[in-house]
Design goal:
- The protein is α/β, with parallel strands linked by helices and about 190 residues long.
- Helix content is about 25%, strand content about 35%.
- The chain contains 5 helices and 12 strands.
- Strands 2-1-3-4-12-11-10 form a 7-stranded mixed sheet.
- Bound molecules: glutamine.
- Glutamine binds near residues 46, 80 and 107.
Amino acid sequence: MRIAVLALQGAFIEHEHALNDVGAECFEIRELSDLKKDFDGLVLPGGESTVQGKLLNDLGLMKPLYERIKAGMPVLATCAGLILLASELENDSARYFGTLPVTVRRNAYGRQLGSFSTVDNYDGIGRIPMTFIRAPVIVGVSPEVKVCAKVDDRIVGVEYQNQIALAFHPELDQDRSIHKRFVSLV
Ligand code: GLN
């Protein structure tokens, strides 16, 4: 089993460490030729969605990755990655992969609460640390989307078919249960 980690910008190294910790082999996608390698799952890391979206388009990666996600390849998306998957952004006219039927509000916690950590429940796992950095929240979900985590009544984690999408950054904490869950999905 091999996992591809989108490594254009943001917190991708931390995902690689987490995947290695749970025994998964991984490699980085930086350009189109990297897609020649075989892989069974994809990680979309946090960072800046506008920058990642532009680079995905400029490098010709958007369409081939979209097709793999649509075809059912398991994806773990965190923070900016969630924004890339969302079918709708409440406060932005952009749309990227659009494969996850949810509405997302970017930078939902404002400047004061830009970053914070908490511990809360993730459905099927239990209580896990959750670190938020200029995080989005999910403000609307289609009925088929499973809500897996809420913090203060705001949706911060969902699963839908092959996609796990989180507003927080599990790769920045030592708890590996989200990466284990993703690898078991793969
Ligand atoms: N604020 C970023 C964005 O809108 C996401 C932040 C993150 O990935 N930590 O793209």
